[in-house]
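Running this now, will post back.
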Amino acid sequence: MARALTVKSVESVAPDGDRREIPDGYLRGLYLIVQPSGAKSWAVRYRHDGRPRKLTIGSYPVFDLKAAREAGSKALRAAAEGRDPASAEKRTADSVEAVVAQFIERHLKRGYRPKPLKEAERLLRRYAVKPWGSRKISEIKRADVRNVLEGIVAGGAPIAANRVHSVVRKFFNWCLEHEFIETSPCAGLKPPAGKEGSRDRVLSDDELRRIWQAAEKLGPPYGAMVQLLVLMGQRRGEVAGMKWGEIDFEKRLWTLPRERVKNDRRHEVPLSSQAVTIIRALPRISDHFVFSLNAESPVNGFGKNKDRLDELSGVSDWVLHDLRRTVASGMARLGISLAVIEKILNHVPGSFAGIVGVYQRHEFTEEKRAALERWAEHVERLVC
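Update: finished.
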């Protein structure tokens, strides 16, 4: 009779020249598979409709002894009830859906901040789980990944395809490292849009005026959001997700908590009188979000509204992030110092990189306020 496996015995079992299946005397039907390479995994053997069947649970140590017994018990229980656990691939531990869930829990949630985590999870669920969720992870081939990426490019979103390529490649590299697969289906696949260079588009004063006036015609919430991007030079996601609780109208200050900003540092943005006027004029649809179409979530639908903005303004070949670069360039033209501009944009690299960033803790609050007021007055002269 086989002995019950222990944590120590599973850990210490050594490979030899042949593939080995070591039965667990505690749970009959559960086996530890040891490859000649030393890789270990778990499987359950059972009978269904009178025929022997095998279900692969997953690799060790992703599945430790306790987890393997729990998964094995569930599979054997299903077989005893007349169901074939191997036929329900979506429920198996090595389905794409199940492995993605493990990747999120064991990797993303341990090393990613909230915003990048949310975006990576969204991309994986849409472009990996949705098309392949019930398939075994080992069945996904290069053609499957290529077809997904080419579909995104064909839909007119090559840069988005690059983002999907990046997160899916990281996922399959993790699967390779944890021995869910022997080769990555992303191997040899280059980013669909090629290497992305940094943009250098700066809008002219005339283009900025036309975009501002088009935003007025577009109206709230999207038009007002674009006008705040022009006035403050902050990131689109930060402005779109602005919350009433972050605004102090008395101090004319917008404070973003560290979890809402890219560099994980609390950021204060003084509000110009023009910015305050725009925010106060917004209908308060949500008690939480400043820019909202309902009571529960911030505004979205940027692509559709950006197309409308282009149509109204007659300005082409630009993206919303170009407003941030335009604000920085415009402030420099007004003679505002680089150090103050970087503080407004919440840039850590540059003037405050390295040892300077360690010892320079001055937040330039009054300097930022004066600069933003000066820039807002410049914009006001342009659009009037």
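The two ends are 90 Å apart (CA to CA). More later if anyone needs it.
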